[in-house]
Amino acid sequence: MKLEVLRISSESDSSSGLVFDITEGRKFLCYSLEDEYRNDKVMHETRVPAGTYKILLRKEGGFHSRYTKKYGDFHKGMLHVQNVPGFKWILIHTGNTDEHTSGCLIIGDSQENNQLKKDGFIGRSTQAYKRIYPPIAEALENGEEVTITYVDYDTV
Prior knowledge:
Helices cover 17% and strands 37% of the residues. An eight-stranded mixed β-barrel has the order 1-2-3-7-6-5-4-10. A two-stranded antiparallel ribbon has the order 8-9. The protein has two helices and ten strands, in the order ββββαβββββαβ.
C-alpha cells in the first residue's frame, strides 16, 4: 500500500495537506495537518522532511494505550512513520490544530484555510481515522509493505 501527503499550504504555525492512497491510481482519503516547515528542526514544532517512509504498527507507548482504551479491538497499533531523519515517534493520529501534533500527521474530513487560522484546523478527525485506519492496519498485519510519501506543493 502506498500513501501520499500533498502539502498545499505552509504558514507560520501549520501545514495543510491532502492524503491519498496511490496504490492503484489516486484515491483521496482525507485532509491533513502538520507542524510548519522549518530549515532547522525545532522539537515539537517542525514537520517531517519531504520523502518516502515506511509505516509500521507501534504497539507500545502512551498513544497506543490511549487508543486501545478509546477504540478497543478496532485498534491494532499506532501507524508509526519509520526512520524520519532527526525525528522519533512520528505517528498518524487524530487531532484538530497544530497544538495536537509534534511532527506527527493528524487527519480529518474537514479543514479550514490555515492562512486564516494561525494554528490551522482540521475537523471530523475521529471520523476520518475510523475510515482510513482499518485498511492500512490490515495491510500491515497481512505483511504488506506500507509507505507514505510527503510531497511539498506549498511555498517551501
